[in-house]
Amino acid sequence: MASPGYGKRTAPGQRPRTAADFAHLPRREASVAAYLDRLPDGADISVKTLARVLPDYGQCALGTVLRRLSEAGHLRRGREHITGGGSPRWVTRTYFSRTARGDAWWAAFLAGERPGDEPAPAAVPAPAAGTVPAPVPAPAAGTVPEPVSEPVRPPRSRAYGVLAGLGRAEPRMTLSAADCAALEELAGQWLERGADERQLTGALTAGLPPEVHHPAALARRRLTDKLPPEPEPEPAPGPESAPPSASGPPGPAVLRMAECTVCGVPGRPEALPGGLCRDCRGLPPAAPAGPSPDEVRARVDRLRAAAGARR
Asked: What is the pTM for the complete model shown?
């Protein structure tokens, strides 16, 4: 989880979860998006944290994934001004939407409005490396065919990673891949209820008998008997963040500022299409706006008038 007030925030107006939510994305991006979708609000989804819990990908690859999710309308980053619970401050948040949204929807949301539903934007084409190649003729006799690359394996969950690493922390609790898959959902409930990886590992490895004959059965028993209670519900949002009511006057707008998903440079939402600034989109810097022809003529007339007065 991120520091209090930071981390993932689910965008409003989500459609029901389906198996085809991220079918328009390349396989790697779809797999990471499905993982982010199931994380609770407040989870740390920075590149460094994701690389630590999703060891199949490095920081560079995950940075590219977050960029493409932003371009596809699933993710935006920004700062939000918080006035309750102490001194006013700005916090950085990453807004995630299972439902792909267009730039206009995100601009309205970041402006503090309650945007209505809208069709998902056009699907983002997969990169060239992920496209399916066209059929090729069979190799001639005596030639060696090119090796076929292995498909990208979807990332494992945090819970699976903890279970798979138990053997390194305590050899008596070494689990097989089948054991980890069978216990993954139960271990995931611990993380959903606020436990971190260290606490989960400690609950499964502390106070073991001299010999453990069935580590998977012992792990299941401990995961069930020691399951933490569900967290208390968060207090109702204050007036500064309460959504406008259809039956009453709208409350004050939430003060938000958009940021580039890649470099973090702030800007107006309309200046960050796809959540990216000009530099991160590979565009040249915008030329400074010069004076209009009328302004040039007026300036020349003033100079001529001043020169005549000096004569």
From this structure: 0.51
